[in-house]
Design brief:
InterPro entries: Beta_galactosidase_C, Beta_galactosidase_Trimer, Class_I_gatase-like, GH, Glyco_hydro_42, Glyco_hydro_42_N, Glyco_hydro_b. It is built from 19 helices and 28 strands. By secondary structure, the protein is α/β, with parallel strands linked by helices. The site of beta-D-galactopyranose has 11 residues, from loops.
């Protein structure tokens, strides 16, 4: 169940056999190669040299390792960029983001599509039937380095094309975007510009469409690669390695192209990327916050329709965050076990050996730079391999009892009109997830409209636009449902629904919203009743025919509920969130725990796992049949019991 990312092109050929031997010695089964190798595969147009990669794959295969081949499109070489400068992406200020690192392409460049299809076909043809290759990875981390959206001429051309297909006439476009406002009506699709470099706020419906368009471009580009790979590699699976906290495109749509999802887990790097408080950043600096990696494991298991890998696992300090601490001893092992507990099929470390050169020379590997000597992470990976071997195959995971409806478009919409500076969808979804896990609950991520049967509790942190499909499953579910702030507050074209928010959810929840207030940091509105805590950041004014389960200070409804559907009219602080979720979990018949803030638990089939992210022991309050660790869970340790 372990893998590693390997770059044979970085090391002398004389080293490859020993590397392969030591991979096997460590307990590794899968090796990903190739994803940045374009300049070594095609030095100049048509001048190919695949023999080195043939030999590298053969060496790995001969050692009994299974290879995952990456397509090299994240790094178009210089000769190609010089030949077609229109491949390059543009930032929102209209400046080119040129050659010199990676991901320097726009998803909308026609010539880039042709060039991508060409190289993918050549690689897929050459390796599609190779017995050592079991799977494929398309490109590398779509959207990483802020590369989903591009603002150049090629993008404008493709956006206009997309709009024409969607709206057919400018009358329909003008109607959809409410172009009458500020005289923004168009007589031709060629008059439409990209929503940037305007004097003040551009039209929100246009921005939402541009975001949808940019997201569709990623999914379509990926599909193009996947189809070529499937044609030439019929026996292999295809994945893409998603990044953490990239929400500019709808990952579920890319997931539709794939056999399984994978993602790149850098738990400590993400502590700096996520808007944690400084206090939290310091507390979790050397371990990561206990929900950062699990949030993504559960998300990508959903994106992969039940199947996911960690394609890149942080093996020690990384190089790219503002600060890059050394993980506490035991963390590489803990993260690996945690991914497995959440259902990962394979955990693959990035990278085999620390590179003593170029951009990532400060990034750890399983080996120290330039030597055949294990790093701390390498030794911990080896320990997991031994533990796994002793344990035998892990059982299949089951459906969780809680579903979290996760919606990328709500992130876009809330970024377009935040209304309060700190209303950030990703953060809201993360905090709801964190709170559920503090109650000891396992969570599945589902997209809006996905089947909800079998779930006891469904939480919808924020679903701004509720379409027909989403409404139908929500209407029909037997689960207890909780909707969060701003749900149902916009229609497809970014309008406030005629019946007022929560729009289509009004009949289900018996609520109607007349005003919203965003609250500056420090301002709180206390909530009391069956739940208690406070509203922070955001508070809505509701009228309701449902039962009022919690009230704001002035007596207005804060939490409403009828038989199954509940509406929370604010951004809840930790106490309000926890008491609300406890109330509803219990209503749904779920037993909740009060897990300490540094502990998390998770079930996989007959096994329960516990993880200690803190600095104090935790005595596990159940007596189980321990297969790993024991009743007293030490800091940075893992326990597994039946
Ligand atoms: C990932 C990327 C890898 C490597 C790694 C370093 O985002 O896919 O190629 O750059 O980060 O942490």
């Amino acid at each position: 169940m372990l893998g590693v990312c390997y770059y044979p092109e970085h090391w002398p050929e004389s080293q490859w056999e020993l590397d392969a031997k030591r991979m096997v010695e460590l307990g590794i089964s899968f090796v990903r190669v190739g994803e940045f190798a374009w300049s070594r595969l095609e030095k100049r147009r048509g001048e190919f040299s695949f023999e080195w990669l043939d030999r590298a794959v053969d060496v790995l295969h001969a050692a009994g390792l299974k290879v995952v081949m990456g397509t090299p499109t994240a790094t178009p070489p210089k000769w190609l960029m010089d030949e077609f400068p229109e491949i390059a992406p543009y930032d929102a200020d209209g400046k080119v983001r040129g050659f010199g690192s990676r991901r320097h392409y726009s998803f909308s460049s026609d010539v880039w599509w042709k060039e991508s299809a060409r190289i993918v076909e050549i690689v897929a043809k050459r390796y599609g039937e190779h017995p050592g290759i079991v799977g494929w990875q398309t490109d590398n981390e779509y959207g990483c380095h802020d590369t989903t959206v591009s603002w150049g001429k090629e993008d404008l051309k493709a956006f206009r094309r997309w709009l024409r297909l969607r709206y057919q006439t400018t009358d329909q476009l003008n109607e959809a975007w409410a172009g009458v406002f500020w005289s923004m009506e168009f007589n031709s699709f060629d008059e439409v510009e990209l929503p940037t470099l305007t004097v003040t706020e551009p039209n929100p419906a246009q921005r939402l469409d541009f975001w949808r368009f940019s997201s569709d471009q990623v999914a379509a580009y990926d599909k193009m690669q996947v189809e070529i790979i499937r044609k030439h590699a019929p026996g292999s699976w295809v994945t893409h390695n998603f990044m953490g906290f990239v929400s500019d495109f709808d990952h579920f749509k890319v997931g539709d192209n794939l056999d399984l999802a994978s993602w790149d887990s850098y738990p400590i790097g993400f502590v700096e990327k996520f808007p944690f408080t400084e206090e939290e950043r310091n507390r979790w600096a050397e371990t990561s916050h206990p929900d950062i990696a699990p949030f993504h494991h559960d998300l990508y298991r959903g994106v992969g329709k039940g199947r996911f890998w960690v394609m890149e696992q942080q093996p020690g300090p990384v190089n790219w965050a503002p600060w890059n601490p050394v993980p506490k001893p035991g963390m590489v092992r803990l993260w690996t076990w945690e991914a497995l507990a959440h259902g990962a099929e394979v955990v693959s470390y990035f990278r085999w050996r620390q590179a003593p050169f170029a951009q990532e020379q400060m990034h750890a590997g399983l080996n120290l730079p330039g030597l055949d000597e294990w790093s701390v992470g390498g030794l911990e990976a080896m320990q997991v391999a031994k533990e796994l071997a002793a344990l035998g195959p892990l059982p299949q995971g089951e459906k969780a009892s809680v579903a979290l409806v996760h919606d990328y478009a709500s992130y876009w919409a809330s970024m377009i009109q935040p209304q309060g500076k700190d209303f950030r969808y990703e953060e809201l979804a993360f905090r709801w997830y964190e709170s559920l896990r503090r109650l000891g609950l396992d969570v599945d991520f589902v997209r809006p409209g996905a089947d909800l049967s079998g779930y006891k509790l469904v939480v919808v942190p924020c679903l701004m636009q509720v379409d027909e499909a989403a409404l139908t499953v929500l209407k029909n579910t037997d689960a207890v449902v909780l909707y969060g702030p701003r749900s149902g507050s916009r229609d497809r074209h970014f309008r406030i629904p005629e019946n007022l928010p929560p729009g289509p959810l009004a009949p289900l929840t018996g609520t109607r919203q007349t005003q919203v207030a965003s609250l500056r940091p420090g301002i709180r509105d206390t909530v009391s009743g069956l739940v208690s805590g406070a509203a922070i950041r955001w508070r809505e004014y509701l009228q309701t025919t449902a039962e009022v389960l919690g009230k704001f200070e002035n007596g207005d409804p804060a939490l409403t509920g009828n038989d199954r559907h509940h509406y929370l009219a604010c951004w809840p602080d930790e106490a309000l969130l926890s008491s609300t979720l406890t109330l509803l979990a219990n209503k749904a018949g779920l037993q909740t725990l009060d897990v300490p803030s540094h502990i998390r638990i998770r079930r996989r089939g007959k096994f329960t796992f516990a993880f200690n992210y803190g600095s104090e022991d935790w005595t596990i309050p159940v007596s189980g049949d321990f297969v790993l660790g024991d009743q007293v869970l030490k800091p940075q340790d893992v326990a597994v019991w039946k």
